[in-house]
């Protein structure tokens, strides 16, 4: 571009030829003055504006402040010429920050370029939005970027840029993006034929799903299906094979995305996922000589191992992974060692047994001295996670030895982890005190206040530990030099429990005073204040050294530090009181035990660990810590829901007395989607509740039919999905929503395909199991692209009567059981109007057909009235067993009424069967 603008080329050449900075500044000042003059005079054509703005940009890039060219850059964005528009966008992204007032002037121009049919203009606008990313721009243009992403006419490279732009906006301003509303439409793009688009959209879905797990749950099936196509079926373009590894970046992202969700319960997804993970591990068993191939393969393998650990730590796949990891942590390649240690830490944080990891304990300890600090940090994390009662002394001892030579960047984190492990796995009080005081002595400035605070809490709350702690801390203080944290611990412990050792040789009150006071001259004012509190405690318990202590108080009464001076004056006044004065004894009473509390060390360590945009699904510290973390997350969610409910209740109670009727809250769509309604839809569903096959839904685009069969508590439902239009239904997604998964299980036998060809039909089998009594049928949710994005949710005709089986009863048996069950509440009855057939007679065949369709056995010659129907059946449930049900249907031709009575040992079963049987027999309301 500079070659087309000779003035810009000459300006750059002059700058580069300047021998000293003064000449460079002189040339720039001259040029800026000329540009100001030109801009002030106006009458510049597009080429001249472009040239002068380019000079301003070059000057800015050199590091000089510029205060001209902003308005001209805004004008250049509206130019129809690409070269001028490009310079305008470049100037906007470089010269303007996200809160600049000039940005408000370019929003309409950017929106116009987003709406343009020129893909180049679209891309320039997307670049500008992503680079600037201000809140105002996000609010104004997020909808336009989303539209460009989901538009079927957008080119692949535009979709990629739109997805990454939306990701940038979400990371900076998540409140602006309606993530839950856009979930299905964004997820549908994961079926795009271009793997580059899929990579970018998956990155966006990863960020959105972390904060909105339920709305983006459908992405799980999409991710598994895409992985199977890449890894097992090898469906990918040759351009996306990186050293024979199919799109490793996409594989890693998909494997990481799956770890955000709990392990799948759908057998078809489990089977496909197992096949994918097995194939990845088998492909990576033999290393290649090509470094790039190994790097790509290892990246995928380690993420696959992490997913296998996340799904089930006891699976054979994890056993195979443990063997591979043992080989990787001994590798000569730094990256492989790093990934091996990190993944093994994941295994240690989840596994029930640490035996496979403990076999590599010596290698892991040697990794603490690796030449690369990142590997050393991962080794530290792994040792922290794999520590338990059996190996705690060995690991803590190694960490203490390594602490003396460890990097300064690691020491603070090491101190926290050593302190936590020492407290958590202490086998004896002696070992705990010896270790923690050695830690404080050797770590020096890297010991945070949380460490010695925790020591004080534990010693105070453990009576058996106090005498030994006083003796050991005194021995440490006798050393020539001590860190100030140890002086603080010594001051507190000796002040509270020094009297327990005062009668032993070498531990007399005067010895304790001399050793502790000799350290005070090297301490800061805060530590000296603590030591003054120790001295006043000694005044109460050691009257023989009271004169020396009073002298100290007298001396400190005249220091400049306000805190020290105030304490000294108060303590001096207390010390002057008579020995039998109760005030001194009350003030100097022994500290009571601290209330039980969670260790502050863990909170401090979590702060040190930090977080990234890609949040981990686990933390270092072993299985217990991860279980505690999950429990804390659930508790937080519950507390948030409770607080929201209580706040809503408070608000409603504050409105008492106003003449308003609060609207009922809508049911959460995250739990059950909103089902399609309509006369035909209801009629199709009702008919299929007592028929084995038929049409469930139909419109101009799609037809859905079902065919079913049931045996006991198990059933199989075939769903036929027909495409009625001459173009394919793409990005097809199907999911099942069950209101009570503990009562009813409905799963696909295989993952639904992502495309339905024009004018063809596809069959999907569903496995059904009735575990307990249920009343709400499951919902089938479909999502697909047919010109535009379509979503459909319909009820599946899976009702409780599908799990009935016939039972044969004679008249005596039937009426005997009828009487035993008795009346309400185990009886349900309804009287409703009926229609007569064309000749004015009762439609007896229909009554029989409905009862038989609901899998009830119509018993012959039971009722003396031939028009009445008597039926019986047994409901099969996997968990609750079998429940009997008896029914009597009594139509009255003259009154055009029918009475149905249902009796069952289960009140719920009686009511549900009555509702299902009577619905198809009633007169339809006009």
Automatic annotation (TrEMBL):
CC terms in the record's Gene Ontology section: AP-2 adaptor complex
Keyword check for Transmembrane: no
A molecular-function term among this protein's GO annotations: clathrin adaptor activity
Location in the cell: Membrane, Coated pit
Major location category of this protein: membrane
Superkingdom assignment: Eukaryota
InterPro entries, A to Z: Adaptor_Complx_Large_Subunit (IPR050840), AP2_complex_asu (IPR017104), ARM-like (IPR011989), ARM-type_fold (IPR016024), Clathrin/coatomer_adapt-like_N (IPR002553), Clathrin_a-adaptin_app_sub_C (IPR003164), Clathrin_a/b/g-adaptin_app_Ig (IPR008152), Clathrin_app_Ig-like_sf (IPR013041)
Residue stretches spanning the membrane: none
One of the GO BP terms on file: clathrin-dependent endocytosis
Residues annotated to bind a 1,2-diacyl-sn-glycero-3-phospho-(1D-myo-inositol-3,4,5-trisphosphate): 6-7, 38, 47, 51-55
Topological relation to the membrane, as annotated: Peripheral membrane protein
Family to which this protein belongs: Belongs to the adaptor complexes large subunit family.
Domain Clathrin adaptor alpha/beta/gamma-adaptin appendage Ig-like subdomain intervals: 686-797
Keywords carried by this UniProt record: Coated pit, Endocytosis, Membrane, Protein transport, Transport
Task performed by this protein: Adaptins are components of the adaptor complexes which link clathrin to receptors in coated vesicles. Clathrin-associated protein complexes are believed to interact with the cytoplasmic tails of membrane proteins, leading to their selection and concentration.
Name the UniProt record assigns to this protein: AP-2 complex subunit alpha
């Amino acid at each position: 571009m500079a070659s087309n603008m000779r003035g810009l080329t000459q300006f750059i050449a002059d700058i580069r030829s300047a021998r000293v900075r003064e000449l460079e500044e002189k040339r720039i000042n001259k040029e800026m003055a000329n540009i100001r003059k030109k801009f002030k005079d106006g009458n510049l054509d597009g080429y001249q504006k472009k040239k002068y703005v380019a000079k301003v940009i070059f000057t800015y890039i050199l590091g000089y402040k510029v205060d001209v060219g902003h308005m001209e850059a805004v004008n250049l964005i509206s130019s129809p010429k690409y070269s001028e528009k490009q310079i305008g966008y470049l100037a906007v992204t470089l010269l303007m920050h996200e809160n600049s007032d000039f940005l408000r002037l370019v929003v309409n121009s950017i929106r116009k370029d987003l709406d343009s049919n020129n893909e180049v203009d679209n891309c320039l606008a997307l670049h500008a939005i992503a680079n600037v990313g201000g809140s105002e721009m996000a609010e104004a243009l997020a909808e336009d970027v989303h539209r460009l992403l989901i538009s079927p006419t957008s080119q692949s490279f535009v979709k990629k840029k739109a997805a990454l732009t939306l990701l940038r906006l979400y990371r900076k301003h998540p409140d602006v993006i309606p993530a839950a509303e856009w979930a299905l439409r964004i997820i549908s793009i994961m079926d795009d034929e271009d793997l580059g688009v899929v990579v970018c959209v998956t990155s966006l879905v990863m960020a959105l799903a972390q904060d909105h797990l339920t709305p983006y749950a459908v992405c799980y099936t999409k991710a598994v299906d895409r992985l199977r196509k890449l890894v097992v079926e090898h469906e990918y373009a040759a351009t996306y094979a990186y050293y024979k590894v199919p799109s490793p970046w996409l594989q890693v992202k998909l494997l990481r995305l799956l770890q955000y969700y709990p392990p799948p319960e759908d057998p078809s997804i489990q089977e496909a996922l197992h096949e994918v993970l097995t194939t990845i591990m088998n492909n990576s068993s033999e290393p290649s000589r090509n470094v790039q191939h190994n790097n790509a393969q290892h990246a995928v393998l380690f993420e696959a191992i992490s997913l296998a650990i996340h799904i089930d730590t006891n699976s054979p796949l994890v056993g195979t992974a443990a063997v591979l990891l043992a080989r990787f942590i001994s590798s000569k390649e730094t990256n492989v060692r790093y990934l091996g240690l990190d993944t093994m830490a994941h295994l240690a944080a989840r596994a029930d047994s640490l035996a496979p990891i403990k076999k590599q304990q010596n290698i892991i300890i040697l990794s603490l001295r690796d030449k690369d600090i990142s590997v050393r940090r991962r080794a530290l994390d792994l040792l922290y996670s794999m520590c338990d009662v059996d190996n705690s002394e060995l690991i803590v001892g190694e960490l203490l030895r390594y602490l003396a030579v460890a990097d300064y960047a690691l020491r603070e984190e090491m101190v926290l982890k050593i302190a936590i492990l020492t407290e958590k796995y202490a086998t004896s009080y002696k070992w705990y005190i010896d270790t923690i005081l050695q830690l404080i002595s050797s770590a020096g400035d890297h010991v945070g206040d949380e460490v010695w605070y925790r020591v004080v809490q534990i010693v105070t709350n453990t009576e058996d530990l106090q005498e030994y702690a006083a003796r050991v801390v005194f021995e440490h203080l006798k050393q020539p030099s001590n860190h100030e944290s140890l002086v603080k611990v010594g001051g507190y412990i000796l002040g509270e429990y020094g009297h327990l050792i005062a009668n032993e040789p070498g531990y007399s009150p005067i010895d304790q005073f001399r050793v502790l006071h000799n350290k005070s001259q090297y301490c800061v004012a805060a530590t000296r204040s603590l030591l003054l509190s120790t001295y006043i405690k000694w005044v109460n318990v050691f009257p023989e050294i009271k004169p020396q202590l009073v002298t100290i108080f007298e001396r400190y009464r005249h220091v400049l530090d306000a805190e020290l001076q105030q304490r000294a004056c108060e303590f001096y006044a207390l010390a002057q009181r008579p020995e039998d004065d109760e005030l001194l004894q009350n003030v100097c009473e022994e500290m009571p035990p601290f209330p039980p509390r969670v260790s502050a060390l863990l909170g401090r360590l979590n702060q040190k660990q930090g977080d990234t945009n890609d949040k981990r699904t686990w933390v270092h510290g072993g299985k217990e810590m991860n279980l505690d973390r999950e429990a804390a997350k659930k508790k937080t969610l519950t507390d948030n829901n409770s607080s929201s409910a209580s706040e809503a209740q408070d608000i409603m109670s504050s409105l008492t007395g106003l003449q308003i009727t609060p609207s009922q809250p809508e049911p959460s769509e995250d739990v059950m989607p909103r089902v399609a309604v309509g006369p035909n839809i209801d009629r199709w569903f009702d008919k299929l509740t007592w028929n084995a096959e038929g049409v469930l839904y139909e419109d101009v685009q799609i037809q859905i039919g079902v065919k079913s069969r049931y045996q006991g508590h198990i059933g199989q439902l075939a769903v036929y999905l027909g495409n009625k239009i001459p173009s394919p239904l793409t990005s097809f997604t199907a999911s099942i929503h069950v209101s009570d998964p503990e009562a009813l299980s409905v799963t696909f036998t295989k993952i639904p395909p992502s495309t339905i060809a024009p004018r063809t039909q596809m069959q999907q089998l569903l496995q059904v199991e009735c575990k307990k009594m249920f009343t709400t049928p499951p919902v089938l949710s479909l999502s697909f692209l047919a010109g535009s994005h379509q979503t459909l949710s319909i009820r599946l005709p899976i009702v409780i009567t599908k799990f009935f089986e016939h039972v044969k009863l004679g008249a005596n048996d039937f009426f005997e059981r009828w009487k035993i069950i008795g009346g309400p509440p185990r009886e349900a009855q309804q009287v409703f109007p009926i229609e007569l057939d064309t000749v004015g007679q009762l439609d007896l065949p229909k009554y029989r057909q409905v009862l038989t369709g609901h899998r009830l056995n119509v018993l012959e010659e039971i009722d003396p009235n031939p028009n009445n129907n008597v039926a019986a059946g047994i409901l099969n449930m996997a968990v609750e067993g079998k429940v009997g049900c008896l029914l009597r249907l009594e139509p009255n031709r003259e009154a055009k009424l029918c009475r149905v009575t249902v009796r069952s040992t289960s009140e719920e079963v009686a009511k549900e069967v009555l509702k299902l049987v009577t619905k198809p027999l009633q007169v339809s309301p006009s």
